[in-house]
């Protein structure tokens, strides 16, 4: 059993050759039959033409005893009903009647092909005793033996070889970039994603594949670089509280008489709370980056703002919300975004925080504005980076994780919205935009009431 080739090039050439062979065999057989019929018919017509001439001469009584030859027609005979030769060419006088075939009166011309000769018999008249003209010639050279079949078989093999060679060259030229791509991919490792595959010229499928692969590598390189930066920053942020906690515990063990154990425990608990907050936020970020989708539900953004805004804080939180500003999202995640924004505003506000929910075209817009020092334009994007905390934030709250705004933006983007810092006359103004539902969908009142009251919940 012949093993199936593993190479795409070999398989492609094998399939192309097999299909070509089938087609060429069909064409060859058809051509052989057509050529054989045409050559044989032309030869018969020539013999019949000569025999018809002597048949007319017989009816006119002008036929000689010795008939002249005509090219390859060396045997011509005029025989009677008893098979006696009445007139013939010289070669015809030397042998008996060529055949005993005697055409019928209603079908005066008969053709017969033997192994090597073509014979035509013409009855001169319809009379019962009418003689018959017999003319015979050798079969055309191309039809003798199997010469025609051998010629066509050679042509088929030559064409098959040409097709196979062309397919081999064409497929090889098409797949040549694949080997370069494979070699380059073998050089790419996780530690070095800077290499790119060579792009072939043109805009065919292979060129588009290479470009797409390079774009994928670009995204992968950026993702890996981002993960490395994230891991480095996370390690740094976790190392500081852990180092502080270790130092406090070591000091308590080394100097038990000088250190208040209750104060050490309270300090250790505070550090533990910060570590717990950081780890919790990291888990949320990991789930958001992994594309974990929380079940969607109908959420009245204004009702959410009134429910989730803190009732008591360092500064008052004023909520103004239009009714029936509906969005489709996760109640828990939206509540987390609102909580992050309000807590951040409360931390930086001097006198009050304003929360405003309104409908603007196709968007539901939630704004959280404080009257603090504001955020410099250069820092408005940087604050959404992980573990980024401005100096004013560190001064006001040293225990934060620096992940709240990053999580809020990721949640907004996962819901098809945006979260940005926009201009404000005073303080910082955070604007959350989400796709708004045109109207509250008609659903059973019990279900809608549960949604509106926030009784249907799903965690981040």
UniProtKB/TrEMBL annotation:
It holds the Pfam family HAMP. SMART domains: HAMP, HATPase_c, HisKA. It is an enzyme of class 2 (transferase). InterPro entries: HAMP_dom, HATPase_C_sf, HATPase_dom, His_kinase_dom, HisK_dim/P_dom, HisK_dim/P_sf, Sig_transdc_His_kin-like_C, TCS_sensor_his_kinase. It catalyses: ATP + protein L-histidine = ADP + protein N-phospho-L-histidine. Keywords: Kinase, Membrane, Phosphoprotein, Transferase, Transmembrane, Transmembrane helix, Two-component regulatory system. Its main location: membrane. GO terms for molecular function: phosphorelay sensor kinase activity. Its EC number is 2.7.13.3. It is found in: Cell membrane. One of its GO terms (cellular component) is plasma membrane. It comes from the Bacteria. PROSITE patterns: HAMP, HIS_KIN. This is histidine kinase.
């Amino acid at each position: 059993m012949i093993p199936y080739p593993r190479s795409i090039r070999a398989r492609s050439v094998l399939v192309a050759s097999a299909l070509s062979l089938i087609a060429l065999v069909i064409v060859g057989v058809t051509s052989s039959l057509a050529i054989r019929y045409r050559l044989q018919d032309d030869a018969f017509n020539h013999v019949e033409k000569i025999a018809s001439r002597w048949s007319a001469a017989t009816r006119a009584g002008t036929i000689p005893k010795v008939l002249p030859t005509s090219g390859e027609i060396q045997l011509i005979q005029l025989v009677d009903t008893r098979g006696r030769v009445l007139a013939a060419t010289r070669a015809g006088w030397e042998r008996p009647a060529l055949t005993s075939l005697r055409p019928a009166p209603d079908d005066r011309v008969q053709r017969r092909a033997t192994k090597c000769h073509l014979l035509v018999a013409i009855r001169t008249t319809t009379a019962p005793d009418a003689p018959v003209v017999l003319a015979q010639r050798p079969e055309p050279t191309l039809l003798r033996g199997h010469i025609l079949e051998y010629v066509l078989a050679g042509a088929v093999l030559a064409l098959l070889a040409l097709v196979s060679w062309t397919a081999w060259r064409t497929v090889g030229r098409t797949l040549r970039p694949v080997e370069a791509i494979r070699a380059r991919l073998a050089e790419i490792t996780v530690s070095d994603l800077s290499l790119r595959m060579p792009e072939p010229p043109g805009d065919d499928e292979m060129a588009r594949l290479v470009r797409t692969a390079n774009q994928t590598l670009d995204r992968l390189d950026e993702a890996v670089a981002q993960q490395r930066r994230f891991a480095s920053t996370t390690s740094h942020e976790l190392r500081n509280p852990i180092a502080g906690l270790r130092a406090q515990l070591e000091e308590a063990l080394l100097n038990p008489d000088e250190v208040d154990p209750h104060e050490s425990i309270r300090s250790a608990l505070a550090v533990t709370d910060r570590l717990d907050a950081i780890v919790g936020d990291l888990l949320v970020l990991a789930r958001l980056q992994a594309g974990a989708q929380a079940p969607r539900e109908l959420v009245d953004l204004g009702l959410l703002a009134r429910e989730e805004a803190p009732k008591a804080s360092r500064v008052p939180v004023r909520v103004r919300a239009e009714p029936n500003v509906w969005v489709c999202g996760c109640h828990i995640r939206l509540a987390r975004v609102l909580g992050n924004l309000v807590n951040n505003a409360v931390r930086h506000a001097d006198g009050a925080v304003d929360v405003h929910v309104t409908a603007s075209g196709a968007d539901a817009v939630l704004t959280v504005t404080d009257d603090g020092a504001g955020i410099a334009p250069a820092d408005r994007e940087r604050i959404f980076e992980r573990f980024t905390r401005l100096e004013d934030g560190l001064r006001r709250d040293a225990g934060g994780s620096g992940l709240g705004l990053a999580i809020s933006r990721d949640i907004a983007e996962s819901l098809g919205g945006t979260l940005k810092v926009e201009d404000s006359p005073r303080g910082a103004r955070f604007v959350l935009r989400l796709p708004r539902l045109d109207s509250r969908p008609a659903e059973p009142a019990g279900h809608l009431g549960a949604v509106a009251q926030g009784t249907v919940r799903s965690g981040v």
